[in-house]
Amino acid sequence: xxxxxxxxxxxxxxxxxxxxxxxxxxxxxxxxxxxxxxxxxxxxxxxxxxxxxxxxxxxxxxxxxxxxxxxxxxxxxxxxxxxxxxxxxxxxxxxxxxxxxxxxxxxxxxxxxxxxxxxxxxxxxxxxxxxxxxxxxxxxxxxxxxxxxxxxxxxxxxxxxxxxxxxxxxxxxxxxxxxxxxxxxxxxxxxxxxxxxxxxxxxxxxxxxxxxxxxxxxxxxxxxxxxxxxxxxxxxxxxxxxxxxxxxxxxxxxxxxxxxxxxxxxxxxxxxxxxxxxxxxxxxxxxxxxxxxxxxxxxxxxxxxxxxxxxxxxxxxxxxxxxxxxxxxxxxxxxxxxxxxxxxxxxxxxxxxxxxxxxxxxxxxxxxxxxxxxxxxxxx
Length: 380
Known about the structure:
Layout: H1 7-21, H2 32-48, H3 67-79, H4 88-101, H5 104-110, E1 121-124, E2 140-144, E3 147-154, E4 165-171, E5 182-188, E6 194-199, E7 208-219, E8 223-224, H6 230-242, H7 244-267, H8 271-299, H9 307-330, H10 343-352, H11 361-372
Parallel strand pairs: 1-4
Antiparallel strand pairs: 2-3, 3-7, 4-5, 5-8, 6-7
Helix pairs in contact: 1-3, 3-7, 4-6, 6-9, 7-8, 7-9, 8-9, 9-10, 9-11
């Protein structure tokens, strides 16, 4: 971000830096179970320091501060090399939707265990035949007394095999009802009938999972909002993934670019690589200006709406351009290593997913063109 900070916000910056200086760095492990356990331990420390969810109400583990303060903490953690919070799906994607749609009783049940990763959450949205076209999902929920019986399949669920709870979208109406016939449920992942299978990606890790649901019973009390509110819940979650999430991810990208600057000064680079570094810096600068707008909007209580697509598109461009030139500056060490993958290489591989998660790049451009610029829809 590029904004002046108050004395109170400067104190928060100092507090966050002191926290990072006072903990042992999280050492990346090639064993996913060990890595997950280390990230949970880190998030517990972050929450104990009062820095996990500074903008949440105090009753749920926060400080009652604003979006600006939350962005300041995210930026400092990213620049300081802190790892991603293991429960980011819960904190940055699920929770905003729950604050809007869940009852007070539900919030009291679900939110307190999120900040310290006492309960890790995943989201069950995408399906083999319903990714970008989420309204065509086929997983079905049928009411049976006080329960809903769910059958279907989900895929690309981050940390699904380690999760305790999931935010699930299921069709309660007819297939023709599209987005009007979808409900949202909170489901315990250990419920009978739930089978989770890890999926290995090109990073060599299995942070994603596919989930099979066979006659899974979910209490009606765990429906979020009403029977026709599922699409609204989904849009609120996707806005979080496309908007506020960018604040934290941008700080990680910024830390990589700072490392690229240092490496380029130390080793020297050819003119073409210097140009690529400059273009990547411009991409990040443009993203930073958009993030300022996001934070201002959140601080004034505005919904991101279709403008979140702009943030996501700019994040994708900056993430990929910065990590591509970082990989170039890294040279052979980026493709041949011992003792673990270089963080820039891992970031480069992960950046490819930026074109897909939270809605594909093509979807974001359609939203920008149709809803922000007023351009006509492409005819079918």
